[in-house]
Amino acid sequence: MGKGIRGRRGKAVRPGTHSETTESKHPAGIIGVIDVLNQLEADGRVDRYAIGGAVGATFYLEPVATQDVDVFVAFTGQMTQGLIDPRPVFDYLTAHGGRVEGEHIVIAGWPVQLLPSTGPLVDEALAEAVTMDVADTSARVFTAEHLAAIALDTGRIKDHLRLLQFIDTGTINMERFEQICRKYGLLDKWRVFERKYLEVNSEF
Amino acid sequence: MSFDIQRIIASKKAWRKTQAQLPIEEKLIILERLRDRARTLRAATKHKEDTVVDAGTTKSLSGNCRSP
Questions:
Q1: What average pLDDT score do residues A11-39 get?
Q2: Nearest CB partner across the interface for B19, out of A63, A134, A156
Q3: Which of A66, A93, B17, B56 has a Cα-to-Cα distance from B25 of 20 to 30 A?
Q4: In which residue ranges of chain A is CATH 3.30.460 found?
Q5: Where are the domains of chain B?
Q6: Using beta carbons and an 8 Å cutoff, which residues of A are at the interface with B?
Q7: Distant-in-sequence contacts of B12-18, Cβ < 8 A, 24+ apart
Q8: Which CATH class is domain A8-142?
């Protein structure tokens, strides 16, 4: 866990290599967010991060408009009275140029939503997230099958649209996806989804 | 120009596939542009920044929309 992330210019991200308190060291935009996340993990403030949501899906699908970057983090070791204490992470990010805005922290111009694991499905998604090259750095992203399963589980209209995109483009391994659904009690939801969207309409 | 709906659907599907196959760096740039465009549209239509509509209930957290 926490291995394999590569920093800018192909170098491994080393702890403490970004100790200045300015955001200007990072490029603007999502690449800048990825830089900060890599450093956050390298400095041991989170055990592991992975990008999910619309930005995560963009690694596999056509880009779709989104207002923020959903980042799932394993906060192990930061429990206070049995609850996750995200303050050390927020303190670290604000010390590195982040700005708290409501439930987001703005990094490199993008509102970033840091999300703890909500259960075993996200735990597995975090553990099995893959490292992908982006420009001259790398990012950890949920697998397409986990993104699809989380979309099914979340179940909003935009999540269903995303799941349809994954299916329509043949991006996900259906056998693996159904395996995840079975493991995490999502088969009923999947059957309902199939009946609703896939049995009548072959196109959307 | 054709109004053949099947051709239009096929064309859109092909375009989506092309978009999906772009290098991730290009797709992230598109994301930035889409967000900027959405912000411009929102500002032009004077929607509140924090409006979140639950599609299931058509309720709005900020009160901009009302249940039918």
A1: 71
A2: A63
A3: A93
A4: 8-142
A5: 17-68
A6: 29-31, 54-55, 58-67, 102, 132-135, 156-158, 165, 168-169, 171, 203
A7: B13/A168, B13/A203, B16/A62, B16/A165, B16/A169, B17/A62, B17/A169
A8: alpha beta
